[in-house]
Amino acid sequence: MSKTHNSKIVKKLRQGCGSCRSFFIVRLIKRIVRYIKHIIFSYLCSIKPKYFMEQSDILRNLRIEQLTPMQEAARDAYQSDKDLVLLSPTGSGKTLAFLLPLVQSLKADVQGVQAVVLVPSRELALQIENVFKSMNVPFKAMSCYGGRPAMDEHRTMRGINPAVIIGTPGRMNDHLRKQNFDTRFVTTLVIDEFDKCLEFGFHDEMAEVIGQLPALKKRVLLSATDAEEIPQFTGVGGGESSPQVVKLNFLSGETVSGRLDLQKVISPEKDKLETLYRLLCTLGDRSTLVFVNYRESVERTVSYLKSKKFPCDAFHGGMEQDDRERALYKFRNGSCPVLVSTDLAARGLDIPGIDNVVHYHMPVNEEAFTHRNGRTARWEARGSSFLLLHAEERLPDYLPEEIPVFGLPEQTPKPAKSRWTTLYIGKGKKDKLNKVDIVGFLYKKGGLAREDVGQVDVKEHYAFVAVRRSKVKQLLTLLRGEKIKGMKTLIEEAR
Questions:
Q1: Radius of gyration of the chain from its Cα atoms, rounded to whole angstroms
Q2: Residue range 6-15: average pLDDT?
Q3: Which of 349-358, 382-391, 460-469 has the lowest mean pLDDT?
Q4: Topology given in CATH for the domain delimited by 54-249
């Protein structure tokens, strides 16, 4: 603010009338406030980013008391100038292991993308984005993946100016070719589920992404299996044996097998659907993930279970993205206790509280078996794994010969109803709707108490809310014709 300009304002104040003086006083105050804000912002940008995000605050936001030894080791290794290769079992918390030191390394004075995270699936991209947002740090992150217009993603990029972009290799290349974001400040590359990226055939696409990131200084690879050799295109110090690479291997001695109760269920018929139904009814409303080997098998199994009035959802790569997200959300919030899936759900998805894994079809190999079982018994919790076998079906060589048999009751219980159901609201972030708005609306207009509302998930154009099943009928009656935040919208039970 120049002295000449200020003197002109002061002169007008002396010469003008009362109303004019008031006007110029307001203008002067606004200029002073803007100037002070500029000084404060410049100071905050000059200090260390850790000023904004202490580890204890981040863990508190995530409702985590302390890090595991693996996460502490990863955090410490990240601080060095060397690249990092982290090998750790499924369900051990690798997402937080790299996200925590990553956000603490972001610079407040850089206005642009600073880190790129490559993942093999859109579900994993969304999961990492959600964990990042739950940290409540002063930086933005967004996910990019196929199945939705790249133009919409670009519009979001321009709107939020993310520091971290998480995406599948193909979609990331699409944005890079179109120069949708500036790569000058991208100094960190993370490849999560690296082995799965290679297995899915993303070799060339990942190489192309890395080739378009000229400012990279740190590379982080994460996997639940050990690779014989790290491909040269990653640029990881020329190979994992390089002194410029820190390799942390937590695969040995860090297994869920000690916390996993493995049992087999014998089906008298080769068509095991009836036995599966009896098993699921016996397990009650406990969260259960059923694995089959083919998409067609998913649809057939779900169709049969629903014909028996058993609540369940399907999950496979051939489904529309919205349908997959809806199924995952209902499974996570407890409104649908059973999810029937291909091995798509065996990797990367962090779904807390899964009690049981059922192998309707035996997995193709031991690695797939391990990843399936890794969906339960996570974070030191216990879980159960069931092998559904007909009398003539042989066990693979990697399994012990003596596996206890789970006996089904003579009289099959009725299918249990979940305590929760999912509510669909036809407005979302684009309509300036947030979680607080939704919860307040349900309390005030729907007469719900805190214990009646579960997980709330607000998307761009709609929202999902878990509410107690016993309250749904009365709730929908009370909300009929009511406006949320002054807006009319569709509110119904999600199907």
A1: 27
A2: 54
A3: 349-358
A4: Rossmann fold (3.40.50)
Domain borders along the chain are 3-46, 54-249, 257-390, 420-493
Strand partners, 141: 164
Q: Which residue has the higher pLDDT, 494 or 97?
A: 97
Helical (H) or strand (E) element with 218? strand 218-223
* For range 254-262, the mean pLDDT: 59
- CA end-to-end span of the chain, whole Å? 59
Class of domain 257-390: alpha beta
Pairing relationship of beta strands 115-118 and 141-144 according to DSSP bridges? unpaired
Which of the four pLDDT bands, split at 50, 70 and 90, describes residue 47? very low
Helix%, strand%, coil% for the chain, nearest 5? 40, 20, 40
3 state DSSP class of 364: coil
CATH number of 420-493: 3.30.70.330
Supply the pTM of this predicted model.
0.60
Is there a common fold for 257-390 and 420-493?
A: no
Location of structure tokens 């708005």: 437
Give 471's DSSP letter: G
Bridge partners of residue 4, in order along the sequence:
none
Say which amino acid occupies 195.
Answer: D
3-state class (DSSP) for residue 179:
coil
Per-residue pLDDT reduced to its tens digit, 188-228:
999 998 887 887 778 889 999 999 999 999 999 998 777 66
Residue spans of beta strands (DSSP E) within 372-419: 383-390
- Please answer whether residues 442 and 475 qualify as being in contact, where contact means their C-beta atoms are separated by less than 8 angstroms: yes
Q: Give the Cα separation of 479 and 465 in Å (integer).
A: 14
Mean per-residue pLDDT for 373-399?
Answer: 76
**Distances, alpha carbon 115 to alpha carbons 96, 97, 165, 175, in Å:** 15, 15, 7, 14
